[in-house]
Amino acid sequence: METDSQELAEEEKNGPPPASAEYCPPSGEEISKSFIRRLFPEATALHLIFFVLTCFSTYLVGGFWYSVCLMSILTAHEMGHYLTSMKYGVSATPPFFIPFPLPPFGTFGAIIKMKSPMRNRQVLFDIGFTGPLYGLLVSIPVIFVGLKLSEVIDVGSLAKPEFLALGDSLLFSGIQYLVLGPIPEGKDVLLHPVAFAGWVGLFVTALNLLPMGQLDGGHVVYSVFGKKRAETIFNLVVAGMTVIILFINPGWFLLLALILLFGFKHPPPLDDQTPLDRNRKIIGVLTLVVFILSFTPVPFPVEIQQLKESLF
Questions:
Q1: What is the pTM of this model?
Q2: What are residue 97's phi and psi, to 5 degrees?
Q3: What is the tens place of the pLDDT at every residue in 5-36?
C-alpha cells in the first residue's frame, strides 16, 4: 500500500506518463510515389503526359495489343539506357516519348538526354549497348507470339489498300521460318498486330544501332575503336547508305541528311585513353552483327517502288 501511494503521489506531481508513440506504416500509394520519385527524380508532368499521348497514338494506329507491345519494347529500350546511367551515376532525363498519331508506327520513338559526361569508354559502351539489348529481349518473344497469332493467306487477298507490305530483316525472316515454316508459293503472312509491333521493334533497334554519330551504335563503335577509327567507320557507313539510296531505297535520304547535318559530333568520355576489356569488345562486335541481322534495307517495298518510279 505504501508503494502504491508513493506512485500515485508521484503521478499527481509529474502528470501521467506520456503515451507511447505509435508507428503508422506508409500506404501503398505513398510507397509508390516515393519509389517513382527516387527512380525518376527529374520527371515532370510533361513526361507522363507525352507517355500517355504516345500510348494513345499507337493505339489509334494499331489497336490495343499493338500499343501494349510496342510501348513495352520502347520502354524497355529507354529504361536500359536510363537504369545503366543511374548505375554509373550519369545524370540523365527520364524517357521522353514522342507521339505521332499517323501510320505506320504511331510514334517517333523516345529520347533520353544525358546531362553529364561519361567517365570512360566502359560507361559509354554500357549505356549505349543496354538500350538495344533490352529492346531486343522484349522484341524477340513478341515476334514469336505475334507470328503464332498471324495467318498465312493467299497473296491476292493482301492486294488491298488497307494492307501494308513489309520487307523483312534476316532476323525476322529466321524467326518466321521457325514459327511458320516455309511459306508456300502464292501465299504470304498477314501479321497480327502483336507481330507488327515486334517487326517495328527490330526496325527501331536497327536504326539505333547504326554505327553513326550519337546513335547507340555510334556509342558502341566509339567505345570499341576510339575516335579516329569510329570516324572512319562513320564515313564508310555514309558511303554505304549513299549507295543504298541511289540504287535500292531512296527513302533513306532524309535519315542520311539528318545524320550528315549533325555530323560526327561525339563528345569524348573524360578518360578517352583506357581501352575496353576483351569481353566488351566481343560484345561490341556482336552488337554490329545484331545490327546487320535486324536492318531492313527496304522496309516498305510498295511505297519505295512508287517513290523510285516518281523520281526516276
A1: 0.85
A2: -85, 145
A3: 555 455 555 555 555 545 555 555 555 555 55
